[in-house]
Design goal:
- This protein has about 160 residues and is α+β, with helices and mostly antiparallel strands.
- The protein folds into two domains: about 30 residues, no CATH class; about 120 residues, no CATH class.
- It contains six helices and five strands, in the order ααααββααβββ.
- The longest helix has 18 residues.
- It is globular.
């Protein structure tokens, strides 16, 4: 069980959990070996909420993105050029959406709206499902492909 969750179960203190999350984030920041990693990391809450992140592969950011992904700190959701089975062959590796590994850490980084947190939550749940590849489009937060078709999933914005 993650440290913050275990502490909450034992002590029921949101403030103490937030302090644990802040420490975890600070530890991550100390592990970042170059400024581009920090720049990508710090851009994630903004680009999730705006849904506007364009991949910066080939501009020196590809190594930073892959470093964060290889460390298990982020998820990469590639866009597809066409919503047609099989999605894999329509994948655009240069355009993608990044998500953090944990919704609690995302909430600790920035005060975000419900829609942004919902997108993060959906991504985490999909990534926890074995053998599911997820994609996105400009109009749909997530796409998954099953034997019986393509399933679009969007976090609804509240009014």
């Amino acid at each position: 069980m993650p440290e913050a969750v275990q502490h909450f179960v034992s002590h029921r203190s949101y403030d103490e959990v937030r302090n644990i999350q802040k420490r975890i984030l600070l530890d991550y920041e100390h592990d970042f070996t170059c400024p581009k990693i920090s720049k990508v990391w710090n851009s994630i809450p903004i680009q999730i909420s705006n849904n506007t992140y364009e991949g910066k592969r080939g501009k020196g950011f590809d190594v930073a993105v892959m470093w964060l992904a290889d460390c298990g700190l982020i998820y990469i959701v590639n866009r597809v050029r066409q919503v047609k089975a099989p999605l894999k062959i329509h994948e655009d590796f240069n355009t993608f959406q990044l998500y953090l590994l944990d919704i609690g850490l995302l909430g600790c980084i920035a005060k975000l709206d419900e829609h942004t947190l919902s997108k993060q939550y959906i991504c985490q749940q999909l990534m926890a499902t074995e053998h599911v590849s997820i994609y996105c489009t400009d109009d749909t937060d997530f796409l998954i492909e099953k034997e019986d078709g393509i399933i679009p999933i969007s976090a609804q914005k509240t009014l």
